[in-house]
Specification:
Number of helices: 10
Largest sheet: 9 strands, mixed
Radius of gyration: 18 Å
Distance between the termini: 27 Å
Shape: globular
Order of helices and strands: EEEHEHEEEHEHEHEHHEEEHHH
Number of strands: 13
CATH architecture: 3-Layer(aba) Sandwich
CATH topology: UDP-N-acetylmuramoyl-L-alanine:D-glutamate ligase
Length: about 325
């Protein structure tokens, strides 16, 4: 196989504003923040960077504008060793941007979709699907043109011998639908956080209510492996009737941007290499925790050796 991982999804810049003063005051009030940084962003792109950092051969399919932000993103992916031949440049629309307002233990996000709204299934050739071991997609709900075609992309990938994974991230519309059950029917690994899973299960099946155990059971009945991110409580994975948990690793947190995406990449590294569930989960938790020790989503992402040592997996 040419690639270990094809990543399809959001590619935008992140402007991170950090400090206790990040909550704005209208009426032309000005507040000072502790730090600011411009970084590669997008759940899928941050995931791709961590996967490459772990040593996987990664290709990315996405869309950027013909502007300074788009060139910055392509250069950053290439610097990480990620193949960018499937990143399309569209001159008529600006590259998407997310402003992260980050304070201790929490963050809020404001997103201009821009080129995020242009990505569709036609950007993914069946040739590249045949060249990869695994296909991952993130930010399902902010990619309106990709959503209808993603089930067929995943179905084709599985038919060609690849496995698939999905991290929906948050739904800004609050609907939590948009074809999610159709794509989950062709998903091998589902990677939600607790809040996302509860909303998705409730929208698809009112009987699941707001109970996380019922929501997890709903997902496990549809997807062979469900890796659930639990924030400060760590993570859990359910597969083949087995449930394994991992407590959160204590670190000095600088910025939580993309921690869940780094977790995804660590867990899937173990999944692709047939690691036991517990070891894969511990590697995911280590990658997620270590990624929070620097600004932005990718600056502090660990190598495989660093993550294994941190998780006691040497």
């Amino acid at each position: 196989m040419r690639y270990d991982m094809l990543v399809i999804g959001d590619l935008n810049v992140d402007l991170n504003l950090i400090g206790d003063g990040v909550v704005p005051e209208f009426g032309q009030g000005e507040k000072l923040v502790d730090d600011a940084s411009l970084n590669l962003g997008g759940s899928s792109a941050i995931f791709a960077c961590q996967a490459a950092r772990l040593g996987l051969r990664v290709a990315f399919a996405g869309v950027v504008g013909d502007d300074v932000f788009g060139r910055f993103l392509i250069d950053t992916l290439r610097d990480r060793g990620i193949e960018t031949e499937h990143v399309r440049v569209r001159p008529s629309v600006k590259t998407g941007i997310t402003v992260h307002l980050v304070r201790a233990g929490d963050r809020a996000m404001l997103t201009y979709q821009g080129t995020l709204a242009l990505l569709d299934a036609a950007h993914v050739s069946r040739k590249v699907l045949a060249e990869t071991r695994h296909v991952h997609s993130g930010s399902f709900y902010v990619l309106p043109r990709l959503r209808p075609g993603l089930p067929s992309v995943f179905e084709d990938a599985q038919r060609l011998g690849a496995t698939t994974s999905l991290d929906t991230n948050f739904d800004p519309s609050g609907a939590w639908a948009g074809g999610i059950t159709e794509v989950l029917a062709h998903t091998d690994v589902f990677l939600p956080n607790e809040q996302e899973l509860t909303h998705i299960a409730r929208a698809a099946d009112a009987g699941s209510g707001g109970d996380i155990d019922a929501a997890l059971a709903w997902a496990a009945a549809r997807v062979p492996t469900v890796a659930l991110k639990l924030g400060a409580e760590g993570a859990a994975v359910r597969a083949g009737g087995e449930t394994v948990r991992c407590a959160a690793y204590p670190v000095e947190v600088v910025d939580t941007t993309g921690a869940g995406d780094s977790f995804d990449a660590g867990f899937l590294y173990g999944f692709l290499n047939d690691w036991p569930l517990e070891a894969a989960l511990r590697l995911g938790c280590a990658c997620g925790a270590l990624s929070t020790t620097g600004p932005g989503g990718i600056a502090a992402q660990p190598t495989l050796e660093e993550a294994r040592a941190f998780a006691g997996l040497a």
